[in-house]
TrEMBL record:
Gene3D superfamilies: 3.40.190.80, Fructose-1,6-Bisphosphatase, subunit A, domain 1 (3.30.540.10). This is Inositol-1-monophosphatase. It catalyses: a myo-inositol phosphate + H2O = myo-inositol + phosphate. It comes from the Bacteria. Transmembrane segments: none annotated. The keyword Magnesium applies. It comes from Cohnella boryungensis. InterPro entries: IMPase, Inositol_monoP_metal-BS, Inositol_monophosphatase-like, Inositol_monophosphatase_CS, Inositol_monophosphatase_SuhB. Belongs to the inositol monophosphatase superfamily. GO terms for molecular function: hydrolase activity. The keyword Transmembrane helix does not apply. It is an enzyme of class 3 (hydrolase). Keywords: Hydrolase, Magnesium, Metal-binding. Pfam families: Inositol_P.
């Protein structure tokens, strides 16, 4: 896997091709969505574009790598248990593609231009390629393990803030109203006065790409799934940043509560998140 190639076809080239093709199509459909359904809850949206984009990506990957496994948000039953179970069943596949066709569906549906296509390839549970594409700005974020992270060919580096007080940090409002939302509101209340400011823009994958690009100092969020995080996690790590769970344990595909930073502020962020949970 180190040469990132099978039979002459580069994994990264296929990931990039999928993300840009699907992204172009998604963007072309904005404003003409005909099916808006809810899945697990009233806030959990899906459109025919989410499903169509996932099918497009899945088919393209299958033509290049028919033996690889595929985990996509729209191919799994809704809800956190089903997504954890699907990952458990596939997590030790040799090659596993992990895809979120539209990350930020709520934004997409409302025409708020902050959504993305997220495509990761894991080899025996470790992400080796991560691609996040932002169709609204035509920004393509690409990382290969050990080879750095790039936005349209320009090398990315995380930001250099050394304290939370200098930091711009993003998070999300989790869709689960019983446990995750109240927990994160506590976190936000604790962090808001300690940071330069908070942002909640609505695409976890794109937030992670922005940490990699140095546009955000850090990001945390509760209750995510592998397809929200996997590609962005490699972007952050390859741009010199740090990934962990919210207890500062190592990042793995199964992590749902995630923290990503420029590295400098990691301990301070984790400490504040933990302190908020324990009050
Ligand atoms: P999505 O748009 O692919 O569903 C926003 O904070 C982040 O939370 C996005 O990455 C969004 O991904 C995700 N999200 C939205 N609804 C969700 C739900 N019901 N369960 C889990 N994650 C969700
Ligand atoms: Ca969704
Ligand atoms: Ca998502
Ligand atoms: Ca999605």
């Amino acid at each position: 896997p180190s040469e990132n190639i099978i039979g002459g076809k580069s994994f990264t080239a296929v990931a990039v091709n999928c993300a840009s093709k699907a992204g172009e199509w998604i963007k072309s459909k904005i404003g003409s969505i005909t099916q808006l359904d809810t899945k697990y809850s009233m806030q959990d949206l899906v459109t025919e574009v989410d499903k169509g984009a996932e099918r497009m990506i899945r088919n393209l990957i299958a033509t290049h790598f028919p033996n690889h496994s595929f985990l996509g948000e729209e191919g799994v039953e809704p809800g956190p248990e089903a997504s954890a179970k699907a990952l458990e069943e596939m997590g030790d596949a040799e090659y596993l593609w992990i895809v979120d066709p539209v990350d930020g569906t709520t934004n997409y549906v409302h025409g708020f231009p902050f959504y993305s296509v997220s495509i990761a390839l894991a080899y025996r549970g470790q992400v080796i390629v991560g691609v996040v594409y932002d169709p609204s700005r035509d920004e393509l974020f690409v990382a290969e393990r050990g080879k750095g992270a790039y936005v349209h060919g320009r090398k990315m580096s995380v930001s250099s803030e050394k304290t939370l007080s200098q930091s711009l940090i993003a998070t999300g409002f989790p869709a689960d109203p019983i446990v995750a939302l109240p927990a994160n509101l506590k976190n936000m209340q604790a962090l808001a006065p300690k940071v330069r400011n908070l942002r909640v823009a609505g695409s976890a994958a794109l937030h992670l790409a922005y940490v990699a690009a140095g546009r955000l100092s850090g990001f945390w969020e509760h209750n995510l799934s592998a397809w929200d995080i996997a590609a962005g996690a490699l972007l952050v790590e390859e741009a010199g940043g740090r990934m962990s769970d919210m207890e500062n344990g190592p990042y793995r595909l199964a992590v749902r509560n995630v923290a990503a930073t420029n590295g400098w502020i990691h301990e301070e962020l984790i400490q504040e998140l933990q302190a908020a949970v324990n009050t």
